[in-house]
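A quick aside before the break. I want you to see a complete sequence-to-structure record at least once, exactly as it would be stored in a machine-readable document. Don't worry about memorizing anything.
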Amino acid sequence: MALGPALGLWELVAFWVAKSLFYMMVCFFLGWIGLRVLDALTPQIHERTLIGKDPRAVGLFVSGFMIYLGLVVYGALTMPTAVGTPILNSIVDVQRLGLLAVAFAVSLLVGVGMFNLLNRLTPRIPFQSLRKSPLGTGFYIFGYFIFLGLITVAALTTPI
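That is the input. The structure line, written in C-alpha cells, reads:
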C-alpha cells in the first residue's frame, strides 16, 4: 500500500519543476534585493557599478548567482514535503516562505556585520580597497551569493 498520493512519473516531474521554478523566482527576487541592500549597507563599495567595469567581474557575478540558484533548486527538491496535503500547498508553503525570509534577513545582517567586524579586526588588510577593483568586488559578491545560497538551502531543508 502506497503512503500518500501515488503520482505517476510525469506528475512527479511536473511537481518538481513547479516547485523548483517557484522557489527560484522567490530566491531570484531575494538575491536581487540582497544585492541592492548590500549596496546600501556598504556605501563605501559600489558593488553594482564596479562589477560592470570588468568582464571578469561580471563573469564572477553571474557565476555566483548561478551557483546560488543551483543551491536553491537543490534545497527546493530536497526540502521535506508533507504527505497527504494538496500539491499547491506543498509548493507554496507559507511557513517555509517565512523561514526563508528570516534566513535572508539574517544572512544580510550577519554577512555585513561579519564583513565590518573582520575589517576592524584585520587593520592591515584594507577591505575598503575593494572599491578600487572591479575584480575584487566581483569575488566579494561571488562569495556573498554562495553564502546566501547555503543559508537558503538550510532554510529550505530544515524540517518544520
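Two observations worth writing down. The chain is about 75% helix and 0% strand. The two ends are 26 Å apart (CA to CA). We'll return to this after the break.
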